[in-house]
């Protein structure tokens, strides 16, 4: 009876792609459509720092060969944006005014970099590192031995920082409350961790002690491309400035769909939303934690992949609950390096 | 409901001259097709003023606004914008709604300094009317009644008129010179101001009974100014207390703002928690940030998406450092040994069903209590009316608000009421709308019959007035003051207003929903050229059109077969007034008229 079902998956990150794989395995005849804003098929975003090690061909980053989608009869629609979901009629509206019907919808849109609202006026002067295109753009802007200023310094940004230092660049982390996101560290441990970063060759500026960021400006000709001015009067020059303050879930297109949202999509531990035909998986999910008595996010590659797998199983007859797949503690190794479960991709 | 063929009333080649109509089909068309105007409690003719802005006629745009709402420059800053939620440009697939409110403000900002206000005055009637309360409802009613020729006396307990506009809304959202200017304009037609004069039973107050004797009618517009209590038990032991009176660090939000705006001093400590999800809560948080608080957090029961505050307002508050935390209800307070506030205890919520206006019900989750440390708590969970000042026996409804009939009158002859005093807390634009409505009803009662009526004015339009390219202009953002200016001592207005080029771009985005496209079926050759160029599914081959109970047109019955086609019909609900069909038609059988409500004198 399920043979003719149409599964639509929004987002082709780890969660969406894992869900498509699992759905195909469990329902060989179902129609599966993946929708993505990206021009590329699923590639490993965690690998993007490799662009600074000379890997600049997009094919190097693909997880599956382009033929995979044809072989598996998975419809992959690239460069499409979902703008609206009509849960009553079971359709998604795409930005180019196309409507697509679904039998089941999996929301796996993940998150995008959070830019604190007080910095939003400087957005045109900031770079990103979330996509292959952004990674390549940054590589072009940073000269050999050039400087990258990382604002915030979440674990994604610090991962890039490790590679940059390793490849002979100068890295300044403007540290604040969201440094080490999504880890939550005590003040004492945080201070220790910042010292370790310094030993790793990363310069640290304490944003709070310097009176906060006053302005980010474009540098004059002949000088570094960006200048960060702090409240204390201190200044910092860099070739690019990368905000790195963790993720905000991409849920805007679900407004008005009737499913429950807070910061992310509120789902049960079975990843079910308040609409029976819609599930969600990955960084977009805000899941009730009975142990912590709150809705929370579970970040990390292993968690996200497990959610993609589970959502697909629950869409095809199972009814299981999500179990976290990785621990969340940040360790200091030998006093000179940091080990985070979020840096384990294999 | 019946189905009929639409009648043909216009010849497309020679459209009729301007006409007025109260045909239910025309009234129904305007009601159904201009969503912004239908959503506006004051009934503002939005497409007309936006069209005026796009032609650079800012003064005229201001006057079109002023016909519906006497405070356009004020509402252009602080309106809750129900029109933008309804705007056709914001419907699924159409992009973002037009920045209607920002355009309203731009008309007020960009009109000439010596701009002439147009008021069509009625002859004096000799009737005396007292209005109690000089907030937005009272001011709107006072203006309209004075235009209608009555002698109006406006009583206000506070030292200055303006009500919530002056005492509730901070200056960085509503500069007081703008407020003064528009209040003065609204009240200068002979309205006698009695500021500082309370009505009630207290010392120095005037009794309402006396007021009734001395005037032909009295209108109560006393607003909704008493904060809702939030009884919270103290977790350090002790009974449930009324926090606002028993701890110096806990205060209700509205009295806090009112005290500041009266010029009294107020302070907050380092970490400020605000509970509540309306404009008052947001204002409290932003004021606290300006008073020097280091951490300001708004705690809401549901989530940001479901609270009745505009997204722009939330964004600006966040830029100023205010944080919003959702899914929590306060259940207790924690005091330290010295009796000072140490924290607030909350319970985690999940989302329940839906309430009016897209709001949600929050359901507490048992056993999920937690404490958030804070030093100051501002409670802004809503207001209620106070009517203990009434010394006459008047019927109340089950919320203890004064009950009014269809004629706007209370159970006491000659005593009318309007605004939040009747409805409970709403918005400024709602209060202005209710004030105008009360003025119209009061005038009808005094004069024996309504003196004005609303009809549909239909004016032929020669060309579409829009280009398809306008549909792709993005919504123009409101320029704002730099962050480092805001929190200093000067506290300038945060939103700077659209300048003329920005206003022009934004005004072009409006679909001009008051343009009515019709196909003359007798001239149509069914070539389908219009359907070929249509950007949406807006031109349909139909069997017939539903006629609703009130005589207006309802849905279209689309034809499936050629031999069923009774007409080719423009679905004005789908139509985005791009004009493509008009330009494509080889036989000029498509006509455009501008259909809009106007008020005319009754014969």
Topology summary:
The complex is a heterodimer of chains A (346) and B (603).
Chain A: E1 6-10, H1 14-26, E2 31-35, H2 67-71, E3 74-77, E4 82-86, E5 91-94, E6 99-101, E7 104-107, E8 111-113, H3 132-141, E9 147-152, H4 155-166, E10 170-175, H5 187-199, E11 203-206, E12 213-218, E13 226-230, E14 235-238, E15 240-244, E16 247-249, E17 265-267, E18 278-280, E19 285-289, E20 294-296, H6 301-315, E21 331-333, E22 337-339
Parallel strand pairs in A: 1-2, 1-7, 2-3, 7-18, 9-10, 9-15, 10-11, 17-19
Antiparallel strand pairs in A: 4-5, 5-6, 8-16, 12-13, 13-14, 19-20, 21-22
Helix pairs in contact in A: 1-6
Chain B: E1 2-4, E2 19-21, H1 24-33, H2 35-39, H3 46-54, H4 58-68, H5 72-78, H6 82-86, H7 100-110, E3 128-132, H8 136-147, E4 151-156, H9 164-167, H10 176-187, E5 192-195, H11 208-214, E6 217-220, E7 226-227, E8 232-233, E9 240-241, H12 243-246, E10 250-252, H13 253-261, E11 271-275, H14 279-290, E12 295-299, H15 311-319, E13 322-325, E14 328-335, E15 341-354, E16 360-373, E17 376-379, E18 383-384, E19 415-417, H16 420-423, H17 428-447, E20 452-461, H18 483-486, H19 500-509, E21 515-519, H20 529-533, E22 539-547, E23 553-558, E24 567-570, H21 580-584, E25 590-601
Parallel strand pairs in B: 3-4, 3-6, 4-5, 6-19, 10-17, 11-12, 11-17, 12-13
Antiparallel strand pairs in B: 1-22, 2-20, 7-18, 8-9, 14-15, 15-16, 20-25, 21-25, 22-23, 22-24
Helix pairs in contact in B: 3-4, 3-7, 3-19, 4-7, 5-7, 7-19, 8-17, 13-14
